[in-house]
Amino acid sequence: MLSSDCAEKLLFYGWYQYLCWASIGPWGSRIIRIDIWDILAPGTAVAWTLGAELTFYAFAPWLLRRNWIAAAALAVSLAVRMFIHYRVSRGDISYATLTFFFFPATLMFFMLGHFANVIGDKIALGLSPSLLFLFGAAVLFFWVHPQISIDSAVEYLAVVCFALSLPGLFRATKSNGLLNYFGDLTYPLYLTHGLVIVVLVWLLGSGRGMLLLPYLSNRAAASVILITCTSAVAIAAAAFIHRFVEEPARQLIAGIIYRFTQRRSLLLRPSAD
User: Fold this and answer.
1) Residue 207 predicted with pLDDT over 70
2) Which domain holds residue 203?
């Protein structure tokens, strides 16, 4: 059964966006002549990733039941990605859709996270090796030329290094209250920062707003002001949403799930003769 945290994410429309991309993406611009981002609310495009995450959660109880099943899923997903790399041109309109939004081609990244956790349980990597893996991932990603997706062998190696860094980093930071609080803000920050950027750029630098930036002759100063304002407002908005939207929604859905499971257990309990 999905956790309350997973169920709470259904309040966002990640699956809607994910399905729109997956179904319309390869053919939308050719057939119905629309930009497929136009079907999404402005500033919310990142929510498509929730669809991929929720799809994984739906399959996880079966995929993660045995490590050999998880390994087979990883191998099949990797094979699907290699087939796409081999058969689909990077200039083709469907390339980004297939490598980003086609679940069989993205499943391997979830499975890498699973096996990083399995390895972390058996081999307790300390903070220093974990930071080294994280630094290696950053260097590898910085080294390669920006690609459409995870395309090259260097990028795949960077993903593996990043996955291997996670168990040790989690073990070293899980008891730090401040880091845990900021960690709780990362999801609402990820989901809402686009909206914050759209609003602040409109207010401070373009459109009808024109409140501040056009009157600054120093472009560097204007950039610093915009970045500072955007960061501060985005973090504040994330904290507000976490406190007054995410936590109440999680508690509400957790209560619904609890009442449902309790009622179900009562119905299944054998009656005393």
Assistant:
1) no
2) 176-262
